[in-house]
Amino acid sequence: MAQANLANENREIITGNDNIVIVDVFQTIRGGRTLDVTGFAPDVINAGHVIIQETATKEYKPMPVNSDNTAYAALPGGHTYAGILIQSLLTKRPMAGILVRGTVNPAAAPYSMDTILSAVKTALPLIDFRED
After folding, report:
1. CATH superfamily label, 18-129
2. Angle CA(97)–CA(101)–CA(104) in degrees, nearest 5?
């Protein structure tokens, strides 16, 4: 697992869509989780990103994206959908709040959820995916 870099950096993250994509937060994974970002290319993981969990190790990870960072890739084998990232964060500091019950606006999510939304809804029945 990759280690989180706890050094302070003066890098700004644009969080303007965070409160648009995450409409209501009723329940999160208590205490949040540090994400394993090994192999995840983007520097920023935006609010609304799907979070997955490896079943064997119980490690939480951002859902992989395709090679040109424009859409979600397929769910890796041995993983399940675990929640939705609440706030945008740097991959260098992957300490994440993960929504498990609330409302998400999929139209404002960082990547189109069209190909995975049905499976995500099944895995996360307490999250209401509703476009504004």
Report:
1. Head decoration protein D (2.40.300.10)
2. 80
